[in-house]
Amino acid sequence: MKRNKTGCNSGGSAHPEIRIGDRWKDSHGSIITIAEHQLNRVIFYREGYHSPCMCTQDRLHREFTLMEKSLLTDKSDMARVMEAQGVEKIRIINEIISRADTLTIDSQREGTAV
């Protein structure tokens, strides 16, 4: 049997990127919100719990699943595109294009140019 060697390696990260405002869920269904992310630890708040909790990135990836990514509203579109990687970058570009298309359609209805 012949092996097919394409020379291509898989790219990207195996784990989702951890960002402030992301919402994760544990195996019991409890939801947490990321408050701070550093190189060796993640600080988060559990729903209904007032004090912050802390864990490592490895434990977060092992015990929690990503539910909802935070929207980076405080950054410009270009900064969001440059910061993202892989499929996330494509999703952000498509979001920007669709938003620009709706602005164009809305301005044409009102009779103004963009």
TrEMBL record:
UniProt superkingdom: Bacteria
Region (Disordered) location: 1-20
UniProt cross-references to Pfam families, sorted A to Z: DUF4222
Stated name of the protein: DUF4222 domain-containing protein
Composition skew (Polar residues), residue ranges: 1-12
